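[step 3/7] fold_predict: job queued, chain A
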Amino acid sequence: WLVWLVLGRDIIIVGGVGALYLRYRLTKFPPTLSGKVSTGLQILMVLAVLLAAAFPITIFQEFRLISIWVTTLLTAVSGIDYIHRGITLTRENQRLRRNISAGIST
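[step 4/7] structure written:
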C-alpha cells in the first residue's frame, strides 16, 4: 500500500506539472521542502526494511516500523502540498490571463 501511495503521489505531481505546462506553458515547478524530505525518508525506509530483513533483531524491526509510518505521513503531506501548490499556480495564472485580457497591468 505504501508503494501505491508513493507512486500515486508521483503520478499526481507529473500529471499536474504536465497540465500546467499544456494549459499555461508553465515550466518552473521546483520541488518543495516536504517533497525533498519525503524522498529522503523513502530512501531511509528502504534501508530500514533491508536491515530488518537481513538482521531480524528488535531495534531494526522497530526502526522499520517507525520509518514506514513516518514515510507514509510525510508522503501524504507532500502530496497534499503539491496539490495545493498546483491549485495556487492555476489560480494565479487564471487571474493573470483575466487581467491581461481586460487590459489591467500586473
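[step 5/7] annotate
The first helix runs from residue 2 to 24.
The CA atoms of residues 16 and 86 lie 7 Å apart.
exit 0
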